[in-house]
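Morning. Coffee machine broken again, so started the prediction first thing and wrote up yesterday's gels while waiting. Chain of 453 residues, entered below exactly as on the submission form.
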Amino acid sequence: MSRDKFLNNYMLGLFPHIQRTGSQIGGEAAFTEDFLESMNPDSPGVTAEEIIDNPKEFKNLRNKAFKDTYGQDFVDQLRRHKYLGSGAFGAVFEDPDDPTKVFKAQRLETPSEVARAEREVETQLKAAEMNRAPRIHAVETSILKPEGMDVLRALHKGSEDFQPTLHVTEMDRVDTVDSQGGFDKILNQHMKSKGIDTTPLSMRYENPEDYERRSNDPEELKVFQTKRDLNRKKALGLAQLKLDLADKGIDHHDLDHGGFDRAEHMMYDPKSSRMKALDYGVAQLYDHKHNLHEHSKNLNIKNSEDKNYTAEQHLEHFLDHKFLAVTDGLDALGNKEESDIFSDIYNEMGEDYIAKEDLINQGREIVGEALPVDAELQMRKGKKTGYTYGKMSNPSVNQILTDINPTDNDPDLKYDERFPEPAKYKNLDYLNKKDKSDKKYEGVEDLLKKLRR
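Came back before lunch.
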């Protein structure tokens, strides 16, 4: 059995079960369950869960199901091709002839799927040029004989002459964050390599008094701060990845959702804090210069029917995407106050996309030029409150002038154990002030530079 025939059978028969169950073993068990049921449809058969729970019989039953369905050659090829994972559109295998490479196999069943696969390759090639994605070595396509649903799909208008296509992309093999156990494991191993004990305090000390004492020990606080710094560096690396991709018109669109990282789509080196991305199947590719140009033309067109609203929508989405990456980068650097102000200014600009583009370019330069060491925040205690700043973010201008380096006696600033941190915009809002000649603001910028370096 050729590789292409094996992959076609795999994508048609086994892959849908893997997608439904979320794992290869689950997919194989579900395929076997369906096979056994087809052999005796009138009698209740074993379930996929029961098949998995009996490892001794599982392999034999699975091989019989595959052999009787596709032949012994399929079983041999399955053994030869190590399955590594799958996404929404295809399965990834280790190259049996070169373990430093992998290939992604997709069965494309409509013209739109062919266009998507071609766009995926084009997008990854652009990202790889910046060393932000695995290198692609080859792309192979072959026309397949229509089977099953292919015949029905061909009846649809526009698909009469279309034949299913096997699409195989060969690329470098990489270790994803997911394959290494997740970000926490990677960061903990990095800390251990530097001789830092990452064992939780509750596991190191049985006596509650020792636990409380150690949790306030300056050396222990440094350990906590180191872990926070590493997480900030990771967040900075992700923001810089998104901005680099955006420079090529790429919105990956599948790196993080709802605060959760898609670890299976990321590669991360904690030593350099550099991040890469893979699986560009749902990535969007924008012609940003063209969309900006169309927007400029729209401004001079009075008749709304003649305006290019599609370009306008793409422009707005792409600017919002870059805006979020910039604010994420500013937050990672500990500059929460600046991030908030940046957001307020951006949102106030409304549909002035030219002004938004200029603002984002300024923010992109700041985040892009930042070094990992810039995400290592300095912890400082307030002279009035005793609150330790710099754990999660840098202090605000107000906090510096009213607590860390107070310039006047503020009777309203009182210590509260529940909310020890003074209000960020209380009394002084230097970055938003309109009258820059006001003497009480003199020296604030120099003070900030001195305290934050």
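The CA atoms of residues 402 and 408 lie 7 Å apart. Going to sketch it on the whiteboard this afternoon.
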